[in-house]
Amino acid sequence: MEKELLNEKKSSWIKKGTDGKKQAFQFSEQYRRFLSHVKTERENVREVTAMAEKKGFLPLKELGKKKGHKKFYDVNQEKNLVLIVLGQKPVTEGVNIIASHVDVPHIDFKMNPLYEDEEYCMVKTHYYGGIKKYQWVNLPLAVHGVIIKKDGQKIDVVWGEDESEGVLTFPDVLPHLSRKIQGEKKLLTGFTGEDLNMICGSIPVADEKVKNKIKISILEILHEKYGVTEADFISAELQLVPSGAARWVGFDKGLLGAFGHDDRICGYTSSMALFNIDDPEYTAVNFLADKEEIGSEGRSGMQSWFVLRVLSELIAFQENGFNDLLLRKALERSHALSSDVGAGINPNFKSVHDPLNAPRLGYGIVLTKYTGSGGKGGSNDADAEFVARVRRIWDENGVDWQIGTLGKVDEGGGGTVAKFLAEYNMDVVDAGPALLSMHAPFELASVIDIYSCYEAYKTFFEKMK
To answer: How far apart are CA 237 and CA 252, in angstroms?
Structure first.
């Protein structure tokens, strides 16, 4: 009777057994390699698009040209990707959507970044998303991104990943002299945004006539490698990211530490899930969004028209015509997972969590009914009916899952793309793995949870109705 009445969870490491653990490590090794070189939203979209093409996905513009073909993709601004597997039922009957985001907290170059000070060439930066600035100081950093020249030529930049290349870094003040300038401040104000000025060079050119000898030296290096000038930084998107590969964590390698788990862990696992379904009852849509970390704004964010345009094209093809009512009905009949990460209990900071409602690493994907802050402000509070349906299909298909909330009430808070999907009057709930050190340059995820996410997303695509 006690077993039937209580909601007691067991570690996925125990439940999965030897074969399950082996599958989890094999799957996570592929993900580790992916994270080790995919560090921007553009790189993520490019890599997953290449995977999709190898799996037989065609550009959406090819819709209808190959009879019976069901797998398509579409790309927006090189920062959004939608993957589609057409179902047995028409899109007007609703689709099953999983939406994650592939932008992550990082630090950007400013548009006029280079200057010289105390015989160093420095870079002015602007942080992106919710970071703790002090975590980024004294780290070896690489530069990933693009430079677009005036003639439209695009130059891909990756600098600081190869051991033969110099990394970049933000230098901190030594502890011997930090008492007044830092020691009397609160932790989060020890560095301001304008303090994040990075060293990128220190060797001057020999020409005595040159005023900024080190800055010119750096510009010469960049011009030789990429053919760019200082003015080309104006039309560049250059991101500072941790240099180096994702790493196993622990003597047992049970955790994976990496930059960008939030939220590429969901984008990767949901994409892999979609790649491995063939004939779903309802059309399956996997959407990789941008700009979630700054409010899902802009033309590549969740609030743009991109996903609506894609669904409209599918409807127009299947129905031999289109009207707005067909789209609205399709959206209302759809089901969605906002696939984003949760905050796992950190043994060093347990006090910020409600242990009865907090997720733990190693216990499966986290089902989060609501996010937001304070009185659930800014959240999508999922309908109990939909939460019950998700529970049912996961239980029926052996998916390891748990519930989770984002910390104690009034402790803080956060949001996801769920509320933007809910504006279309579709069913939406949040679901993703728990992390430690979220938004840090090195985040931690459980190997067993990574695989549980894949299983949960695949089940949702195939079984939700």
So the answer is: 38
What mean pLDDT value characterizes the chain? 97
Query: Is 148 buried (19+), middle (13-18) or exposed (0-12) by CB count in 10 A?
Result: middle
User: Please, which residues have CB within 8 angstroms of residue 200's CB and are 6 or more apart in sequence?
Assistant: 114, 121, 122, 123, 168, 218
3-state helix, strand, coil in the chain (%, to 5): 35, 25, 40
Yes or no: say if 373 and 419 are a contact pair by the CB < 8 Å rule.
no
Do strands 365-368 and 427-432 pair parallel, antiparallel, or not at all (unpaired)? antiparallel
- Full DSSP string of 190-233: SS-GGG-EEEEE-PPPS-TT-SSHHHHHHHHHHHHHH---GGGG
pLDDT of residue 283: 99
- Identify the CATH class of 106-242: mainly beta
Going by their DSSP bridges, the two strands 58-59 and 71-76 should be labelled as parallel
- E strand residue ranges, 86-140: 95-101, 106-117, 120-128
Degrees, nearest 5: CA angle 190-195-196: 110
Q: 300 with 56: CB under 8 angstroms? A: no
Q: Average pLDDT, stretch 199-217?
A: 96
Q: Please write the tens of the pLDDT for every residue from 37-73.
A: 999 999 999 999 999 999 999 999 999 999 999 999 9
Which DSSP state fits 172?
A: P
Q: What is the pLDDT of residues 241-252, one digit of tens each?
A: 999 999 999 999
Residue 14: enclosing H or E segment and its boundaries?
helix 12-37
Three-class secondary structure assignment of 274-342: HHCCCCCCCEEEEEEEECHHHCCCCCCECCCCHHHHHHHHHHHHHHCCCCHHHHHHHHHCCEEEECCCE
Where exactly does CATH 3.40.630.10 map onto the chain? 8-104+259-463
In the chain, CATH 2.30.250.10 covers: 106-242
User: Would you tell me which CATH number, out of the four given (3.30.70.360, 3.40.50.300, 2.60.120.970, 3.40.630.10), belongs to the domain 8-104+259-463?
Assistant: 3.40.630.10
Residues whose CB falls within 8 Å of the CB of residue 191, separated by 6 or more in sequence, listed in order: 133, 134, 137
